[in-house]
Amino acid sequence: MKITNFEHTGLDKVEEFIKKEDISENELRECLKYSNVYFILEGINRVQSTLICELKDSYVQQSQRYVTMKEDSFTLPELEKEDSDKARKLINEAFKLYNNMSQSKEGEFKGRPKAENYLYGIPIEDARYILPMAVKTNVSVSMSGNKLIDLFALLNDNRYTYILADIKKELKKFLPAKLLSLLLEVKRDYNIKLVEGYYKTEFDKIDNNNNKMVLINAFNNLDLKTGLGAITSSNEKKPSEVLENWGEEAQEKAKSVANRVLGYGHESIAEQARTTFGMMCSMVTYHQQLRHRLSENHREELSTIIKDMERPVQVPPTIIKSKFNDEFLDLTKEFKNFRRYIAEKYSEEKAVNFLLNCDQVKLIISTNARIDVKMLAERICLNAQWEIRELSTKKLEILRELSEILYTNALPSCVYGKCKEGKLTCGKQMFMKEKFMS
């Protein structure tokens, strides 16, 4: 891999300052807010890109639509020759299946390709579920300078020493010497096993049956929280006094106030309503969740997926209905067995390269209503990827049981007005209206 197009503003001033001053990590973080950093990571694999994008700054990643079936289209960890040959063979089998499943029909079509434009009705977006995380990608990164501390906390993390070594080596070439020396000392100073133990109870509530999207906790009475937030900014009385005056009508009064203020476009009051969900999804959909950069997420350790041999993979419906389903499942079993072997012989760190896009990960998501309205409006759209659409629809059903007003607009633009997809519209506006407005 290599880093290209590196540019920064303000780091030189920070460098000159820290040469003269002893500075703590928190002080360095404050000083770095003055600066900005931009670069492109070329030829990294999907494990690396996932870890990078979890930092939640501005990341633009190459779509897997552009994966090519070439010898240099994936990366392999250092393995003995026999194991390396086996890994290469498995990945080439995945590439072959991916290519076979997503063959296009002859002839031209306009706009975004749909299932009917593919020979077996399997779009590339579904075929990619068989691809391993070893597949290469490119990521464009833009961040404020203080996020360098978070980036190096990741690069210095002992869990990812091997996985991120090449990125760390490349990045060191571009940073001022004194600043780099301080960044190399940054550590994630918490006990990972202790944290995982804390989340175990929540993760145990999530499974592959009817519990792939579950409510973990929420504020009591979201409408009341939102209404009080609105009153706090628009009334001379203390919120407690208003609440006392409302008496038994507090619930309805708060709803009315929140509804009116939201109607003015003052969406910030919706941030007063917070919820936490547990979610289980494929690595494909997990990455789409990360792209929003708006929620607070905690995912389980990737090594957990390797150890859990019984966890089912996520198979797209188009593949289930096709002649490729058995081949898909057989190949996923081969990958599971191989990566467990790699983990036992080498390390779990090397084994994660052989996670597949269809492997499922559990995570905890904390958001507020303003964020959810934006995210769900995008992901419930029929042009959204099917898996995240199903999960988002389930989440909306749960949220609407918690509030009558906050999630009214958590729907695609076509439900209330005009589709914003333009020429790429799915053309099913009436279907969406009937589904969500009835």
Compact overview of the structure:
The protein has helices at 11-20, 25-32, 46-53, 81-101, 124-127, 147-155, 165-171, 177-183, 192-204, 222-234, 239-246, 250-263, 283-291, 302-307, 317-320, 325-345, 348-351, 369-379, 386-402, 429-437; strands spanning 2-9, 36-45, 58-61, 136-144, 213-218, 274-282, 296-299, 360-368. The protein is of the alpha+beta class.
Largest sheet: 4 strands, antiparallel
Approximately how much helix is present in the residues?
A: 40-55%
What is Rg? 24 Å
Mean pLDDT: 92
Number of helical regions: 20
- 3D shape: globular
Distance between the termini: 52 Å
Number of strands: 8
Structure description:
- The structure is a single chain.
- This protein has 438 residues and is an alpha+beta fold.
- Helix content is 46%, strand content 13%.
- It has 20 helices and eight strands.
- It has helices at residues 11-20, 25-32, 46-53, 81-101, 124-127, 147-155, 165-171, 177-183, 192-204, 222-234, 239-246, 250-263, 283-291, 302-307, 317-320, 325-345, 348-351, 369-379, 386-402, 429-437; strands at 2-9, 36-45, 58-61, 136-144, 213-218, 274-282, 296-299, 360-368.
- A four-stranded antiparallel beta sheet has the order 1-2-4-3. Strands 5-6-8-7 form a four-stranded antiparallel beta sheet.
- α4 (81-101) runs antiparallel to α16 (325-345) and α10 crosses α12.
- The longest helix has 21 residues, at 81-101.
- The N and C termini lie far apart (52 Å).
- The mean pLDDT is 92.
